[in-house]
Amino acid sequence: MTKNLPASKQIYPRLRELDPALARMMFARALTKIRQMVGEYKIPSAIEWIENFLLDSDEKLIVFGYHVKVVEKLQEKFKNISVMVNGSVRGKERERCH
Question: Which of 22, 40, 50, 55 has its CA 20 to 30 A from that of 11?
Fold first, then answer.
């Protein structure tokens, strides 16, 4: 079945046969990288949406993110009017973010 496929497409099925745990780990890493790339791709649209929300509303906005690079880019754009809380923000500093 895989004989007509290019060598690069034959590797994963063969690896899955030889070492299923390693194949799952490689697949998970690839999927994580794809998710991160998608998150980074969405940054301009997220910025536009946030800007529109802030222009049209007096409400506060909480933005959650998964990938550090994405959250950092958003915080960089809105640094004068925002705070960023993540796992590296501790104790008293976290309390000041209210």
Answer: 40
pTM for this entry: 0.68
Q: What is the pLDDT of residues 55-75, one digit of tens each?
A: 999 999 999 988 889 999 999
Provide the residue range defining the domain that includes 86: 43-98
The reply to whether 32 and 64 lie within a common domain is: no
Closest to 46 measured CA to CA, from 64, 59, 34: 64
Among 36, 40, 33, CA closest to 74: 40
Q: Are 43 and 73 in contact (CB under 8 A)?
A: yes
Residues 75 and 96 in one domain: yes
The predicted structure's pLDDT at residue 22? 85
The residue whose two tokens read 């915080």 is 75
